[in-house]
Amino acid sequence: AQKVTQAQTEISVVEKEDVTLDCVYETRDTTYYLFWYKQPPSGELVFLIRRNSFDEQNEISGRYSWNFQKSTSSFNFTITASQVVDSAVYFCAPYPNFGNEKLTFGTGTRLTIIP
Amino acid sequence: DTEVTQTPKHLVMGMTNKKSLKCEQHMGHRAMYWYKQKAKKPPELMFVYSYEKLSINESVPSRFSPECPNSSLLNLHLHALQPEDSALYLCASSQEGQYNSPLHFGNGTRLTVT
Q1: pLDDT value at position A11?
Q2: Which chain A residues are within 8 Å of B105, Cβ to Cβ?
Q3: Which A residues in the span 12-71 are in contact with B, Cβ-Cβ below 8 Å?
Q4: Which residues 6+ apart lie within 8 Å of B79 measured at CB?
Q5: Chain B residue with the nearest C-alpha to that of A92
Q6: Nearest to A37 by CA among A49, A26, A27, A29
Q7: Tell me: the pLDDT tens digits for A23-56?
Q8: Does residue B103 contact residue A47 with C-beta atoms inside 8 Å?
Q9: Cβ-count burial of A4 within 10 angstroms (0-12 exposed, 13-18 middle, 19+ buried)?
């Protein structure tokens, strides 16, 4: 069975602080994809990143960075120097590499940046 | 601006009404999706269309009826809904089926059933 866990339900940090959102994906599959989506108060989900389980290199995009460690099944997301516009719900979403299965979202982490 | 457009943004309907939600994309994507999202919950997949054919129905009640008139349009027809169907309905598209292509979402239709 596959299981995605976002243990942090809600996080609040003061603007300009760094914050890390955790995601743990437990699976017996050796190959899979992991996605992160952002859902601001306006409602639409915005695609942030997709990583393949074979690629454990960290990725950085501006203030965003992702750390994937297959050994611990974790795919964590860090925002550096947070801004009020980062306030949103962030979903981790794994997808198996094979088969026509649905994209399953984690329960999400609500991030609030306090000005 | 989102490249997937959903109308209306808000909809209030009675349990005996018939209404439709509309979704449109012009990115040339061949897969389109309907998701339902209750408050403080993650989105849940309802339907997937791939190349204008229904490929996944997640055991959704028949009071929800999807339609894909062409590769750019996706409708969700609503009839005899229940108050518990009140939710945010999100449309999404992707380049191909349910595989590794990122989904592009619309802003959603916030539905209230009275």
Answers
A1: 97
A2: 37, 44-46
A3: 33, 35, 37, 42-47, 50, 52
A4: B17, B18, B63, B65
A5: B42
A6: A49
A7: 999 888 878 888 999 999 988 899 999 888 888 7
A8: yes
A9: buried
